[in-house]
Write a structure and sequence with these properties.
The structure is a single chain. This protein is an all-alpha fold. It folds into two domains: 13-35 and 158-231, Endonuclease Iii, domain 2, CATH 1.10.1670; 42-151, Endonuclease III, domain 1, CATH 1.10.340.30. Helix content is 55%, strand content 0%. The protein contains twelve helices and no strands. The protein is elongated, with a radius of gyration of 20 Å. The chain starts with 12 loop residues before the first helix and ends in a 9-residue tail after the last helix. The structure holds iron/sulfur cluster (SF4).
């Protein structure tokens, strides 16, 4: 069973900023500075991120590889029927839904820009680039942030389900803040220039220490500042 304690957030903004800096520094000591993958085109990164929804990295890669084999140029995918795209990405799960979204986006881009490229977004301010992507069905804030963080090297902090869980436990966001809303609350807390580092290291931290079902608080250096840990009942005394 996942832990039951439910911390509430009582920290003010400055305290949250301090805690986030401490967290960022601690995770750097523990996991290092993650390297950035060779930069893909923004459109490739977007399609890859769409394919990553509700599946593993392995299955996402299989689906992306299948798509590129079947349609080596995005022009070909845009001209194909969604069923053809679905057949190519079957191994990634939710193939029909993802194919409809990819097809719809590619066709919109072709109509709007006449070429299947999103490289023009490098010149757009963050808010404008995010708004352009998120107006499309199936592209939420997280998908837009991941795409732009990876392919445009932007200092944006994507919040997935694991990062949302850790931020709630630490008291950086309140219990009712959704992952979508958490982007606006957590972004300003992240030390400038370190969003990619913190995002990647938090994923590693969530896999190894602050896990969903059984967080290893006893070995966590952050426990004194953690709202979740402080809300746990005291451990029974030995022999008592
Ligand atoms: S003390 Fe426990 S709940 Fe808090 S961050 Fe560490 S592992 Fe997660």
């Amino acid at each position: 069973m996942p832990p039951k304690a439910s911390p509430s957030s009582t920290l003010d903004f400055r305290s949250k900023k301090r805690l986030t800096r401490r967290l960022t520094n601690h995770l750097r000591e523990r996991f290092g500075v993650p390297s950035r993958e060779a930069r893909a085109g923004i459109l490739d990164a977007l399609i890859e991120t769409l394919l990553s929804q509700s599946t593993t990295d392995h299955n996402r890669d299989l689906a992306f590889g299948g798509l590129k084999r079947r349609f080596p140029a995005w022009e070909e995918a845009a001209a194909a029927r969604p069923a053809g795209i679905a057949a190519a990405i079957r191994q990634g799960g939710l193939a029909n839904q993802k194919a409809a979204r990819i097809s719809s986006f590619l066709r919109w881009l072709k109509r709007e820009r006449e070429e299947l490229s999103l490289e023009f977004l490098h010149d757009a301010p963050d808010a404008e680039a995010v708004a352009l992507l998120t107006r499309h069905k199936g592209i939420g804030v997280k998908t837009a942030y991941v795409t732009l963080m990876k392919a445009s090297s932007r200092d944006l902090f994507p919040v997935d389900v694991h990062i949302h869980r850790i931020a709630r436990r630490l008291g950086l966001i309140g219990p009712r803040v959704t992952p979508e809303k958490a982007h606006g609350e957590l972004g300003p807390l992240v030390p400038p220039g370190r969003a990619h580092e913190l995002h990647m290291n938090l994923l590693a931290f969530g896999r190894t220490v602050c896990t969903a079902r059984a967080p290893r608080c006893g070995e966590c250096i952050l426990r004194r500042g953690c709202a979740f840990y402080r809300s746990l009942p005291p451990a029974p005394k030995a022999g008592g």
